[in-house]
Specification:
Shape: globular
Strand content: 25-35%
Structural class: alpha+beta
CATH topology: Deoxyribonuclease I, Chain A
Order of helices and strands: HHEEEEHEHEEEEEHEHEEEEEE
Number of helices: 6
Distance between the termini: 25 Å
Number of domains: 1
CATH superfamily: Endonuclease/exonuclease/phosphatase
Largest sheet: 8 strands, mixed
Radius of gyration: 19 Å
């Protein structure tokens, strides 16, 4: 059985006895939604996060872009454009709005081992800006919402400047607070091919997997036309069998493999991991899932190499 079929069948064949748990989750969500409606009726929307009027990407020079995937914008180079080596590493982490202690220390520690970093639930504050400056990183943030004068969303950091960038914003059907994603491309050294990197925070509070499918759709269009290696990384909120099969099945059919960890420390709900790293046209050299108390999620650090025929 090929590795793609094995990945899919591993999830497809598992039988999860989760009906009772899902009923409880749905009941909890209904209660939360009802409380939100009550608070809104009494106090208005001031206590809720606000979102920009349009999808907004911000880079390290505070330039703003409003290009929605699958359209791309060519990024203006601010310095001598360097390139990724044929072997490189990616760190993926839902950083939980930097609320837990030690996040800065740990992020710097792991960043020293990474060329690319995809963060979800990142708070765009002076501490995170200082981190990027200290590590000499380029970055993009796609703003999901603003709360107490702070922007939150997904951030993609890199040691080399992106060639192209775009983003998406998809509102949670219940709370209407968006989840965001970023797609960027990077040049490789000694080859004309480029890497497409997608950083996605999956929509969460839904009864079915359909909104998650809709959220991923623009990136599928990017995948279909990209000629070269691709990584799709993030917190997909795959807490149900249906959501897991939607993501795994879609990407496996598109030729992707999922990173596997010998000691899997990823956050799970009902036995299902939420965070994933998928790759195509790359060889995985090493993969670590790292236990930590610096967030409710644990990070993944993966080393890839270009295939020899690339």
């Amino acid at each position: 059985m090929c590795i793609y079929q094995a990945t899919y069948s591993r999830y497809h064949s598992r039988k999860f006895n989760i009906k009772i748990h899902l009923r409880k989750r749905i009941l909890t969500k209904k209660i939360i939604f009802g409380v939100l409606l009550l608070l809104t009726a009494v106090f208005g929307w001031s206590f809720l996060p606000s979102s920009p009027g349009k999808m907004t990407l911000i880079d390290q020079q505070y330039r703003q872009y409003s290009v929605t995937c699958p359209a791309f914008i060519n990024v203006k180079s601010t310095a001598h454009t360097n390139t990724l080596n044929s072997t490189f590493s990616l760190l993926n982490w839902n950083i939980y709005k930097q609320q837990h202690q030690q996040w800065s220390k740990k992020l710097n520690e792991w960043a020293n081992q990474a060329d690319l970093i995809t963060l979800q639930e990142a708070k765009y504050d002076q501490d995170l800006i200082h981190f990027s400056q200290q590590q000499k990183l380029f970055y993009y943030q796609n703003i999901a919402f603003n709360y107490q004068k702070q922007n939150y969303g997904v951030n993609t950091f890199s040691r080399v400047q992106a060639q192209q960038a775009c983003g998406t914003r998809y509102s949670e059907p219940w709370t209407m607070v968006p989840k965001t994603g970023i797609a960027t491309t990077y040049a490789f050294k000694d080859t004309t091919q480029s890497l497409l990197l997608v950083n996605l925070h999956g929509v969460n509070f839904t009864f079915t997997a359909e909104p998650l499918k809709e959220q991923v759709a623009p990136y599928i269009q990017l995948i279909e036309r990209h000629q070269g290696p691709i990584i799709i990384s993030g917190d997909f909120n795959t807490w149900s069998e249906a959501r897991t099969e939607e993501i795994i099945g879609t990407l496996v059919r598109a030729g992707f493999n999922e990173t596997q960890f010998s000691k899997d420390q990823r956050l799970t709900i009902l036995g299902l991991p939420l965070d994933h790293i998928f790759f195509r046209d790359l060889e995985m050299i090493n993969a670590k899932s790292i236990a930590t108390i610096a967030s409710d999620h644990t990070p993944q650090l993966v080393t890839f190499s270009l295939l020899t025929d690339n």
